[in-house]
């Protein structure tokens, strides 16, 4: 499941720490109950980080099946292969926790979206209420009325934990709309009809990162 070159995200364990420190790295090699990674880079500063033996992390990665997995790990030491690497403990594939399957976990998140009617003059910008690899819900501006089965071109702006922004173009179909009487806000559910698989994987990765962030926050 873990293959050489797989990107891995590390979250540093720290008691009573408000900010979650995240690092990115890649798998260089693996052995029985050990994995070897290049030196991690802190996401915020983009600077190489150095850790002592015993430093503990939660590690996560996106599998080839479209599912996200995480496991507990710690630094066992350093080693020199083709490049300097860190040696981390690995519990084995049977102990990996599957966080997300291809049926797409939906998360609550507000990201910017540009909307343009495929066969209508409707055009506006808004934010999402929730998002998954298969669709989303967006807030409908006042004075706008979207009907079921209408097709729209959407451009989503994904802010990844790495600090990068991705612009995702997708064709979507309106599935249903709902009105919240308390907030007086309308939301429209959209199913993705045409979406490049690379873009879908980016959305899945974004949802996974947000889900892991929420889990980490709840434990603090």
The DSSP helix count reads: 1
Which regions are unreliable across 5 or more consecutive residues at pLDDT < 50? Answer: none
Radius of gyration: 20 Å
Name the CATH architecture of the largest domain. Answer: Beta Barrel
CATH class of the largest domain: Mainly Beta
Structural class: mainly beta
Q: Main sheet, how many strands, which sense, barrel?
A: 6 strands, antiparallel, barrel
How many domains would you count in the coordinates?
2
Shape: elongated
**CATH homology-level superfamily of the largest domain:** predicted glycosyltransferase like domains
Order of helices and strands: EEEEEEEEEEEEEEEH
The end-to-end distance, rounded to whole angstroms, is 30 Å
Lay out the secondary structure:
Blueprint (H helix, E strand, L loop, with lengths): L6 E6 L9 E10 L2 E5 L2 E2 L13 E7 L5 E13 L3 E6 L7 E4 L6 E2 L3 E6 L5 E9 L3 E6 L10 E9 L5 E16 L4 E10 L2 H23 L1
Antiparallel strand pairs: 1-2, 1-5, 2-3, 2-4, 3-7, 5-6, 6-7, 6-8, 9-11, 10-11, 10-13, 11-12, 12-15, 13-14, 14-15
Could you explain how this protein is built, in words?
- There is one protein chain.
- The chain is mainly beta.
- It has two domains: 7-101, Electron Transport, Fmn-binding Protein, Chain A (Pnp Oxidase, Chain A); 107-216, Thrombin, subunit H, CATH 2.40.10.
- The chain is 10% helix and 50% strand.
- The protein contains one helix and 15 strands.
- The longest helix is centred in the last third of the chain and has 23 residues, at 197-219.
- The chain starts with 6 loop residues before the first strand and ends with a helix.
